[in-house]
Amino acid sequence: MATKPVDDDFDFPDRPADPILQVAVPAQDLHLGAATVRPLSRSWMEQYGPQPPGPGMRALDYLILAMFAGSMVLFIRACSWAVFS
Fold first, then answer.
1. Euclidean distance between CA atoms 15 and 17, whole angstroms
2. Residue 27, domain member (yes or no)
3. Which of 4, 32, 53, 79 has its CA 20 to 30 A from that of 60?
């Protein structure tokens, strides 16, 4: 009775099971420390960062407040009309 040889490649961890998956990694890609972050330039922050509100935004804020106050007045009048009529 003949037995087949067992394929034990656990003794050779440096030999991959699939030779196609071997990828050469250069030494500079093995950076294991903290990530290096490039700081943003001042001009980028001035261009895309938060901007102070201008006069147009202030007028829009007042318009929103006036519309809210007007809707509250209409709501109170409608409620008082429904109760006292």
1. 7
2. no
3. 79
Sequence-distant (≥ 6) Cβ neighbours of residue 9 within 8 angstroms = 15, 17
In a domain, 62, yes or no: yes
Give the whole-angstrom CA distance, residue 10 versus residue 16.
10
Q: Is 63's pLDDT higher than 70?
A: yes
Full domain range(s) for residue 65: 54-85
Q: Is residue 11, in this structure, part of any structural domain at all?
A: no
Per the structure, the count of domains in the chain is: 1
pLDDT at residue 9 above 90? no
Query: Cβ neighbours of residue 61 under 8 Å, at least 6 residues apart?
Result: 53
Let me know if residue 67 belongs to a domain. Answer: yes
Give the mean model confidence (pLDDT) for residues 9-28: 59
What is the model's pLDDT at position 15? 60
